[in-house]
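Example 3.2
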Amino acid sequence: MKQKRVTPAVPGPGQESVWDYPRPPRVEPSTDRVVVRFGGDVIVDTDDVIRVLETSHPPVYYLPRAAFPPGSLEPAAGNSWCEYKGRASYLSVVAPGRREESAAWTYPAPAKGYEALVDRIALYPGRMEECTVNGERVQPQPGDFYGGWITSRVVGPFKGEPGTLGW
């Protein structure tokens, strides 16, 4: 099947195009303030953030494990493999009265070049009550596999939307 040609959106002032992100992905420290609400409470509020930027994907935010309250992350079944970052382990996010199975992931022993991800946690933003970056509510990356965080800072189109499997 022939793939549809992608026409990247043109970024405006202060925006980034995900089509300018590299492949393999780049790991980038950030001073963005990330706040995550889950189970009726703020479970993360940090500016100790790492973004992973990959062609056609909105940024994935990796947050320090130490920023999560004790007991809010529990090991979950399964794992996955990234050709660049290595083997990911999944975590369930828990709060009183609420549990999201495999809603987070981590790279306990990431591949060379991705060592900055050790002891960092990425979350599927659509499975939290709310995730914000610098006060702006995040929209989850389309689809049920990718965990990108869409804000007004990034333009697509984004992998995960219908018809994007072959990108």
